[in-house]
Amino acid sequence: MRIRKSRMLVFALCISVAALFLAVTAASAANPKIGILIYKYDDTYISTVRNALNKALEGKAEVTMQDGKGDQAAQNDQLDVLIERGMDGLIVNMVDAQAAAGVVSKIKDRGIPVVFFNREPDLNTLKTYDKAVFVGTNAADAGRMQGDIIKKLWDETPAYDLNKDGKFQYVMFKGEPDNPEAIARTEFSVKQAEENGVKMDQIGQTFVCNWDTALAQQAMESALAANEGKIELVVANNDGMAMGAIAALSNIGYNVEGGSKFIPVIGVDATDQAVDAIGKGIMSATVKQDGEAMGNAVSEIILNMIAGKAPLDGTSYKYDDSGIAVRIPYSPYSGK
Ligand code: CA
Q: Is 67 helix (H, G, I), strand (E, B) or coil?
């Protein structure tokens, strides 16, 4: 009798635990808790992604967002807090993509679905966890798009060929020496222009200016001092450096609003300043990272994963060759 009674008790206990579990699952599915870690709020492009995330998740999840302020140690602490608070899903924009292994292992221990975005961790690290997905861009595409813009500029305005030698004499501004985005943009912009049939001729060395406007301005001032009248095109890995080059040009009367002397300048990012400069006619074009498309993709995917569905279920997204990453395309912007 006694044994039977305790069996009954265990059975009843199991039922109530199961019921409780179902209740918790149902509650979290209705309004899941999503923790979002951002590498830093003070970044123009990332701000557009944040806004898109907030908008896409409004009414669908309880969102907690944290500013890593460019400090990976701080972001690790924020992750610990979010995990302790029982998040149903996590969205992570790494401060330091090299630190992803530790982050993945912490999240994996709790079995929480996670979408990494923008700053790309080693995808082999992500592959160690079956509830991790990456959403990013394809670095080479930004360069290729610049190459297409170069072709268009060359074809549309023969006057850009100042020395009439049939070649586009250009200067190149690179972000950082070992940054994969910077390397790909530098390489593929020129490669694509050449594949499009434009003969490219670099003036001087590549200027490595750490994505920085002031450094780019100094480099452009030196380049102009040595080669004024010979530079026909400025190609920059980002709009920040493009703005520096434009500042140097306008100091000596080029690329001034309403002015007569103009050298085409192209960048990447479509920052507010660049869009404004393009509108004023003192910059040619940029390449836009679509932050809104990025935010929408990340939110659709995390909601699927939290609901226990396949990450891309019912979406229009496709994995790239890695089978774990989704790439949001860039788009050219010339204000037209
Ligand atoms: Ca030329």
A: strand
